[in-house]
Amino acid sequence: MTINDWFRQAKKPSYWITEDSPVDAQFLGKLVYAGLILLLIYRWYSGRILMDLALSPVIEPEVDNTFWLVLASGIPEILIQSPILCIITDVMLLALACLGYIRSDRVKVTWIFLVLFFIQTITLEAYSSSHSKTVICIFITLLPFCFRNQKWVRLWEFARYYLAFMMVNSAISKLYYGGLFTRDQMTNILVSQHTDLQILAPDTLHTGFIQHLISSPQLSNSLYILAFLMQLIFITAFFTKKIDKILSVLLISFVIGTYFLMRIYNLDLLMMVLPLWFSIVYFNPVYTHQREKTTIIIKRFT
After folding, report:
1. Average pLDDT of the segment spanning 33-46
2. Which segments of the chain does DSSP mark as H helices, in order?
């Protein structure tokens, strides 16, 4: 399908509100690992890799049992204290992602990648005094490729429902904790998130736009309500797949909007666009360890 063909189809409302035809797991594997490679490259660019934190003396695991258990093993400390091991780990992750892209059977590659990425993530988060929640999206999206057949299908469907749960849970939190009813909530968030830019780069276009939003509480609070509605609408994913394409566009808009307006790193959420957009799937085995059986069809003529 060419780009022009896609645009012609996209003009039809039925393209956005009907279920798509089933998509093969092998094709989705290519897309997932291509997205993973791009995300890893961006992480390298933004400094979210081990080699940028090598020999770091600061550690802050917060109150997280998983972090404490992994740190108790001593592996993160050994890793962070060796710049060579940090470089090897970062390079191996990118190499495994490239290998997962070109292979047809990705089970072993995915398991190795997830184990290594888990160790890298815990080390990065603990030694950078950060605690990203959206990184789980990478694990959830890759997990289906640790299995085959119906297990793959079920885990791919689980990724879609997990995304819907995260978005709806975030919307409900705004109600439960009162963020939606707090006066000038978005304005206060913008002031907090952009204090450094207003001091260090007050003359940039981005800072000027943020200052305009801060001086216009009604506009900024309207954006906060819009973000709440964009999250809440994901509740429809629990009941139908017919508007998954619309939800995919909303998810991309939400990620870009929050990153631009509030400087919140949630680009990992983009990995879960794929389970949402391609929600009707099937697994066609490439390899089999059993001998193929020959079926003889006898036609009867009368």
Report:
1. 92
2. 3-10, 13-16, 25-46, 65-72, 75-80, 83-102, 107-127, 136-142, 149-176, 185-193, 195-200, 205-214, 217-232, 244-262, 273-277
